[in-house]
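Q: Convert this sequence to structure tokens.
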Amino acid sequence: MSVWEALILGVVQGITEFLPVSSSGHLVLLQRIFGIHEPALVFETAVHGGTLLAVLIVFRHDILSLLRRIAQPLTLYLIIGTIPALIAALAFRSWIETAFMTGTFLGFAFLITSSLLFLSEKLHRSRTNSVTIITPDKMTWLDALVIGLFQALALVPGISRSGATIFAGFILGMSREDAFRFSFLLSVPAIIGAAVLEAGELSFSGFLGSLPRGWFIGAGAAFVSGFASLVILKRLVTGEKWWVFSIYCIVVGCVSLIFSMAGS
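A:
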């Protein structure tokens, strides 16, 4: 992987990590286009550091509030919401790694994301109630588990984590703002967990040896573009703009299918 390729992948990772269009799916597609053969999960672990920093800055007030008072219902809900993805990652890691490397069903996964985004907009418009997740009596452990199950589904490349979890929030009747906030607070343990799982399979020196050249440039680019996309999404989610991402995922899904067929 060249420095320029790492830069491009870092920018794409940062933008798509938070927008509901699947960062893992875009990395798989671009790596296939560029002919990059390094393990996708290794590079993703590196650039996840950049995107994690972006989340910590944008949601610093919420995170500091949690750290000041750990013993609160929201902390429990975040733990419960993280468990399904953790179990799925441990149980299906080899299968997920293969999916990252081949991307054979990438196009269909993008189309699934498109469907989730389209349905989430319909669901939200049809609901008049909302849930304020910061208030303990407005959310239950079962709500957190449902959102966590959708986050686990997003381990599949091409299925957006933010799109799936916000969709789950809409199913439960959350407001746009609350679904957005819980989704991205939930991304903090998810990103950290992904890095820990990857590092756990390699020694420190082995992990550094597996990193492609220019990874630090990719991580920096992921932070800058991730911060910008998170700020943009925070504004868009309060409006009715999900249809834009739905159409985009249809286009990318079709491109991925065509590229896959052409290469087979």
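The first helix runs from residue 3 to 18.
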